[in-house]
Amino acid sequence: MSSASSTTSGAAKPASTRANPANKWEAAADWTDGRLGIYSLAKANLRKIFPDHWSFMLGEICLYSFIIIIMTGVYLTLFFKPSMGEVIYNGSYVPLKGISMSEAYASTMDISFEIRGGLLIRQIHHWAALVFVAAMLVHMMRVFFTGAFRKPREINWVFGFLLLILGMFDGFFGYSLPDDLLSGTGIRFMEGALLATPLVGTYLQMFLFGGEFPGHDIVPRFFTIHVLLIPGIMLGLLVAHLILVFYHKHTQWAGPGKTEKNVVGMPLMPVYMAKAGGFFFLVFGIIAAISAIASINPIWAYGPYRPDQVSTDAQPDWYMGFSEGLIRVMPGWEISVWGGHTLNLGVFIPLMVVFPLVLVAIGAYPFIEGWITGDKREHHILDRPRNAPVRTALGAAWISLYLVLLIGGGNDLFATHLHLSLNAITYFVRVGFFAVPVITFIVTKRWCLGLQRRDKEKVLHGRETGVIKRLPHGEFVEVHAQLPQQDLYKLTAHEQIQPVELPAQRDENGVARKAGVFTRTRAKLSRGFYGEGSQIPKPTAEEHHEITSGHGHH
Amino acid sequence: MSEEKLPESHGSAGEVADHGDPFADPGLPAHEPRRTDIDERAAKRAERQVSLMFVISMLATVGFIASYVAIDPDKIVYIFPLGHVSALNFALGMTLGVALFLIGAGAVHWARTLMSDVEMPAERHPIEADDEVRADVIQQFRTGAAESGFGRRKMIRNTLIGSMALVPLSGVVLLRDLGPLPEKKLKDTGWKEATPQKPLQLINMSTNSPMTADDIVIGSLTFAMPQGLHTHDEDFQQRIAKDALMLVRIAPEDIKDDTSKELGFQGILAYSKICTHVGCPISLYEQQTHHALCPCHQSTFDLADGARVIFGPAGHPLPQLKITTDEKGFLVATGDFDEPVGPSYWERAR
Lengths: 554, 350
Ligand code: FES
Known about the structure:
Chain A: It is found in: Cell membrane. Chain A: InterPro entries: Cyt_b/b6_N (IPR005797), Cytb/b6-like_sf (IPR027387), Di-haem_cyt_TM (IPR016174). The complex is a heterodimer of chains A (554) and B (350). Chain A is mainly alpha-helical. Chain A has 20 helices and eight strands. In chain A, helix 5 packs across helix 6. The longest helix of chain A has 40 residues, at 422-461. Chain B contains eight helices and 14 strands. Classes of the chains: A mainly alpha (554), B alpha+beta (350). The interface between A and B is large, with 141 and 110 residues.
């Protein structure tokens, strides 16, 4: 502590100099402020401005479903017994009476049939998990396609990305817990993936399962991971994510009065509080109603797990479906190396190589794009997806890959429901894995450019009014109306980044200089992103003047 | 695309700042009052709507508690179009859903109709510190670093880095007792007890009794486990995950693979039931083609041809068990599988 203040105030006790509070609420606030400093905290935040756009609620859905998952999860842990000890079922579900099963399965049965409201909470928990992952994906798409991940928000993108991955895996661990036939099949799938890892696979398997498959440890271990380890990390990431959102403030669309330097919207108190708080109840209410209506994961229909049995619809939850697709369409490559060893590429490549790559591609994207553009400025105004055609096309290509793999993961369902040959679907997916993203990329990029051209057209020639005018010489024309200035501004506010140029071949002394591979690749990529074929030049004020000032304009 | 679909479109004209540049930012549009801002009756109506939602929510919560007390958990009702559902689950879920949803809807409606909707700008502040702060902090850090002598005393620094790098290894080592070492565990199955002198009978999984060759008809698929294994055994799950057997009988002239034919008995072939892909049990059999299909990822094995993989992601054929009959005519195995069953792994040798 510096000595200056202590000398001036001397030995006197720092006292509250507050005038008498108006009522007991203010008095309570004064009391708290004296301990926690809440006034200074609230000063900055009580009327903090939040911009309003429907797509901002996607992130809120993630947050709220996460809270719902935690609340219902706590309830479930009060009744669930994470044990693989064998018991004979004697509950009220008649078809399974007298059958031996693990305590985990039996207690899940009890939650579903004996405990009043237990089934509902189980369903809400599972539905909320699905909503959670889906909302995270869509939320990330929003952030991706609008360029909201750019500086200063790259780190927050990574936090969000980690939350997505952890959410997916926690979902996987979660549906492995009841130890029903379906969940056991999923665990076996994971065992196969572990075993396929070269060198250490068998050790990983033995250590995770505490011995051979399935052993007795897997449910209690997964339980700890599912309820403690992963949610703990997620909670930390989530808090960090929100702090950063708060600190950076929201992004906003270009529009009248909105700049890179301000944020336009309504204050936290009261509007945003009421809307966001209310929205939590909307989400919770809808999930509760869905859980009342649509039954999910009816474990009683599958029966307890037995390694020599299988249920017919052995499908993972949809968000893991792409990994299932990967493993279904991969050819069974297995090679012997060094005599006594097997390299199981057929499982190793899809699950331990491609699967992480598909995910990591998302996490690394902001850094890749930042490197290509060489753009070091802060961005708070969003891009309309059409104005960043290559990024938009990359995102679309990624989604198309995900969907192709999802088709691969559900090839049996597609086959039975659409009366197609299963093998044909698999071959289609094998080709589609490579072809569909490329096609999607090309189509999306052209589409964006088309939309850019439309915008330009509209800026220069106005909007069609539907009014037909007959000219003196008999021709009929449609009257085009000038756009109001705010719309003109919105349509032209985006900036057009120029590709990074290669440094001059010779430096100022005329000495030849060669750009490294790195620099050259970057220049090439940058041209791909922002070169001639990738953006339509914005209309200029001169062009606009020329067209709007009189002759021949209609 | 119509103008309405532009982001954040409001349609009210802002003040035009500069007529010289048609694309200039016209500034924040003026606030347009809502119906409830100017019409007190409309505002009162909105107020009543909000309160009504909160009141219905209260009733729904009462309904929730009533359902909890009154409805028997076993009661199943038919509700169109959901079908037969648990009455309790339905009642609890619907009342809870309504109670929560209406709190939310009320709050949002309140915010939208009665709270001020004037948009206002707030300044952003650059995330980066200005140069002065930057220089100051870096200076302070340098002073601190110099005082610690971290850069000067290289030996301390390097040994510190070394010890920090090694200490996490303790955590890794502590994980060692999570499970046993693999050794030969994945290779051996319960059938290894069987020897030519002391063969093991094949026990039919559905009848729980040994079988003779005549019990298996051509074109059928039978599942078997080794004699001495019981479903109530402590390690049953672990054993059946490797021991499960499927028996097919194929007319001997249809068997294409000679080794496979020799391992069988009068056309009865005993294959591992565990898929060699990632270990699902194989359950679908097509008698015309002798193809067995794994339901998990559709690996297809030709049982007439040594269970060769003819489609799908599995990398090698199903292991086969050598079977014969004992003196009483029961089907028996005389040894373990010729290669490890289930998914393949690094140490697996053919
Ligand atoms: S486990 Fe049989 S095909 Fe994958």
